[in-house]
Every structure is written in C-alpha cells, then in structure tokens.
Here is the input.
Amino acid sequence: MSNKIQAVKGMNDLLPGKVELWHQVEQVLREAAWSYGYQEIRTPILEKTELFKQSIGDQTDIVEKEMYVFEDASDTSLALRPEATAATVRAGNQHGLFHNQQQRLWYMGPMFRRERPQKGRYRQFHQFGIEAFGWTGPDIDAEVIRVGARIWKNLGVENIRLKLNTLGSPEARERYRHALHQYFSNCRDQLDSDSLRRLERNPLRILDSKVESTVALVEAAPSILEYLDEDSKRSFESLCESLTQSGISIDVDNRLVRGLDYYTSTVFEWVTDQLGAQSAVCAGGRYDQLVEHRGGRATPAVGFAMGVERLVELIAVEQKSSTDEFLDAYVISLCGQQHAVDITERLRDAGIRACEHCGGGKLKSQMKKADQSGASFAVIVGEDEVATQSVQLKILRGEGGQEQIKREQLVEVLVSRLP
Ligand code: ATP
Ligand code: MG
Here is the structure.
C-alpha cells in the first residue's frame, strides 16, 4: 500500500508562483533595515531550551505550551526557536557585542510554535525583526517604530495602525502587578484556567488572554496609567510627540502588555483589520533588563518582530503580484546542442535569465514549451543558424515577430530590448 507522506501540520510549502512575492517583500525588509544602519545577524535555529524559558518567561503561552522541545543524543534539552530576540541577546553576550558598544541589528528567518494552525497562524512561520542595543530612548524607540512605518510605505500597505503603551519602570510595573492581582483575585471564579494559574505569579499575562470571558474582565481592570512614574510618563509623552511629528498616528492602548515577559516601558503593535482574527502584523517594545538577566552588562534595548506570512497575505489582498517575467529567454536547439549551450551561457554571463530546452523534440513542441515558460524571447538555433553563426530571435509577447541576427550581436540586442 502506498503511503503518501504529507507535510507536518501547520508547516507550509512555499511553491513557485507564491515565492516571488516573498522575494519582493524580503527585499523591502532588508533594504529598510539597511537604510537605517541596521546590520544582519544570523543565529542557529536550535538553542538550549533554558534560554527561552529564562528569557521569554515560564508562564507565557510560548514556553508553557508552544515550544518544540526535545532531548538530543547527549540528553541536552534543545528547542526550535519560537522567536529570535532571546538568541540575539545570547549571541551578543557571547561575542561581546554589547561591551561599550551600541548595536543596531536585524534578522529574518523561520520560527516555530506549536499553536492551533489557522489562517495567519502556523507552526513554522517567519519573522523579520530589528533590535537596537545600548540606547535608553525614547528617540531610538521612535526610530524603531519609524522603521516599521517605512516598511508599510515602501510596500504600499495602507490599512495598518499603531497601538502603543508603556509598562513604566520596573517599580511601576510591580505596583501595577499588585493592583491587577487584587482586581483579578476578586473575580477569581470567572477567570479561565490559564489566567487563574497566572494570577499569583504573573497577573499581567491575564491582560493578554484571548479567552472571551476573560477579555471582558480585562476591559474593566485597572489601567497602568494610574501607576506610572514621572520619568516613564515624560518619556512616553516625548515618544508620542516624536511619532506624531513624523506623521504616524497613534492609538494609545493601556491594556497592551504583549505576550512575552521581558518587556519594560514602551510596548507596541501594528494591527490591521484586513486579516481577520490574526490582526497583529508586527509587535515589539523595550526590554532593558534582558541582556543583564542573561549574564551580560546592563544594556538597554528595544526592537520588534514582524510576521512575514501575515505581511505577505496583507500585500496579496491589497495588490496582485505578477508571477511571469521571471525568465528573459528560452533557447531552442534543433541541431548542435553544444551551440545552444554556449549561447545560453553567454546570455547568463550578461545577466540575462535564460533557460535551455532539454529533452529534444520538434520545433513545434519546443516552441510550445517556450510559450509556457513565460520568457519574453525565444532564441532558435537550427541547422542554418549553426552554419551561418546566427540565431532566430522570436518575440513571444505582445505583437510578436521574428528576425535572424548574428550570434555575436545577440546579447546586445536582448539587453536593449529587455525592460
Ligand atoms: P499573537 O498575539 O498573534 O499570537 P504574538 O504576540 O504571539 O502574536 P509575537 O511573539 O510578538 O506575537 O510575534 C510577532 C509577530 O509574529 C506577530 O505580530 C505575528 O505577526 C507573527 N506571529 C506570531 N506567531 C505567529 C504564528 N504562529 N504564525 C504566523 N505568524 C505569527
Ligand atoms: Mg502568540
């Protein structure tokens, strides 16, 4: 009996036709990061499980139920990375990147979370992110948010808005934690089981609950605003002012806490109403204590992570991508295969994307393949052409037409006619 193995649930193949749009998006993301002076960092996909437990927080959804964890042959517990900030901090500490230095870094790659798969939520997904280490803000916080705004601008994304909040100083956060503990304790019997478990050690987590009955309780919960220290208030106001002056409109949302424990002070999310339930495209904030808690020198930091699947989906609903034009020339050979090989390689030397017909066949069947290939031109090498050191150049799109040209002129002619 045949056994057709399927992909792992929640993990997607990215097929030709779709992948071109990914290339366009990835290019815009890289260019945006470079244009602000951010440099790329690449860290391994596997890390020690401990790193994520200690960084993200052991009472978060990610650590409690979403990580892919296994023991390798030497009994070390490893995890597929669910996000990249923890690893970036680990790498920065390990290689001394933060010693008396400021760093602007970006990354892009696959992340893994064992969530219930649905539109916009997968078990392997991709994030692009930036992290700025060594500045206290709020100017750099504004810069990080502006990188996001520039990406929307460069991609032509319009239906997106910024939700912004501050969690204040660690002391303010502690006072708030206390107040939330008191509030949620009073309605303990209405809390869902996850929230109940988090009540004692991490009541802030409850604000991030997606359980409907709890969301209703959260709406009436105390606001961080009442517990903020003066410095945090001033810094938040200055951040808002800077963003407003850059033309970025802000939705202040005092219930926004984000799903990871390491945030302090500024937190934000970019959300859209174009993607249904999975509305957050990008999320981030300040995490001033993480570097020190992971064994490094105290280094303030701020960053964001963007979900590339959601971004691609958002662009796909706003614009249709074109999948043709990935090939310039299709080379047909009716005799002397080596001539065709040499001609095609010469085209590639000149940066022309060329595909050579393989498998032989009559002119008619080769022409059919040329048409299907999406190429703009067919280059035909027949017996006469080999004898006269020439080729037939056939235009495959628009008005069409065919002419004989000298082999040594082919590159020049094609370059002048290609867009
Ligand atoms: P959500 O509330 O949607 O679960 P999150 O708070 O867990 O998001 P972060 O950990 O902050 O998300 O990740 C940043 C971004 O990565 C999200 O805004 C989203 O665009 C994307 N993202 C997170 N989890 C997934 C997933 N399972 N599949 C696809 N994209 C994801
Ligand atoms: Mg999540």
About this structure: Residues 74 and 162 are 46 Å apart (CA to CA). The two ends are 52 Å apart (CA to CA).
